[in-house]
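Morning run. Coffee first, then this:
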Amino acid sequence: MNKRKSILGWYAFSDYVASVLAWYFLFLFRKTIIEGNQFGFNIPFVDTNFWVAMMIVPQLWLLFHYLTGTYTDLYKKSRLQEFFKTLIISFLGTILVFFLLLLDDYVRRYSDYYLTFFVVFSLQFFFTGFGRAIILHFVKKNIYSGKVGFRTLLVGSSQKANELYEEMKARQKSFGFHFEGYLELNGKVQNTLSTELKELGKLTDLEKVIDSNDEIEEVIIAIESSEHHQLNDILIRLADKNVTIRIIPDMYDILSGTVRMNHTIGEAFIEIPPLLLNEWERITKRWFDVIASFFAVLITLPLTIFVAIRIKMIDGGPVFYLQERLGQYGTTFHIYKFRSMKMDAESSGPQLTQANDDRITSIGKTIRKYRIDELPQFLNVLKGEMSIVGPRAERRYFADRITKLAPHYRHVFKVQPGITSLGMVKYGYASTVDEMVKRLKYDIIYIENMSITLDFKIMVYTVLTVIYGRGK
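And here it is:
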């Protein structure tokens, strides 16, 4: 893993050098060609503007690359996809830089603007693409040689699993799968798989195996057609795990178009990534969460102070209520809320809020109606424990009860919990576990259709809920 992080640093350094070189030659071009032709003599280009550009512009390019999701695991990048991504990002970045920094240049004719834009884009794309191509060549070389790979768990022990293992072992080029072992499904089978790989348990041990080997990144499901009835159970067990799932398809999957080719030569898989949003959407969502939460905390500060004083005046108890909740991949964190109930509200154990609940204080009824009690959760968002939009974070006590009734509940752990959700705006608060299960369908719909656009729609619905006081 350290080698993979180190190569990522070189990738960013290559981009920095590329932008420095691009802007060096751009200044040279501007002073000798554009301005030199205009004034009739060459103008020294190493001036104050040159040094300012050398300090600022490369930093802006690095920030732009980061915001567009460039600096993630290089060992899982496609060179062809990275080529086109570099082309597109160079073009979009050039547009921004051109209008911010170059539009006020002295020119003899408008065609000089077009020429300048073309030079900026060409230089940026060439130097960036060249450096990346070299680094990605060595990255792929490390994978093909087997020096670097992804710790992989094979689920299945029958003929299909054995054939997959033997095929990968026979290849001269490795595709990065370093098998830690396999899980047996339907009885022991004496084959190459059972003699060369460690048997780590049965299907019921799947979660335990992954939790005890926290560096497992890939799970390959290689089961026979007769075992497909177990596929749903396997996927549910993996729903809250931070692993990439690969399924060996049958002919129906191939004809239905769900199969994704991972390599030009090699096995084709149905791939289920651990992250539902692409890199750009994920980073955009996080930056929006941080900026919006920061301003939300500042804007609502007077209201926060007023509510805190009112809560304190009622019974002298704590203003905030901290409670352990389950976050992404089932990790625990403490959620912040304004205390809306009496201090001994759960002295007899976890309870859901009921209509006309006598445990709710007078100020509590108001802040719950307008969702003001949720305001401190913006601190959870700033800490990276929550998002503004996402499924409601539940306590383990209730999450376990929901899972017993609806095992697919574990899919909500694929994403960060949110202050608001599709389930909250469509269904509202739940007062029983059965109501939680009914609300769950909206959370699953959100996860399956997750996008930045959907997040904005949910936030609009939430604002209307707050304005009209539809909370409870």
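The radius of gyration is 28 Å. Good start to the day.
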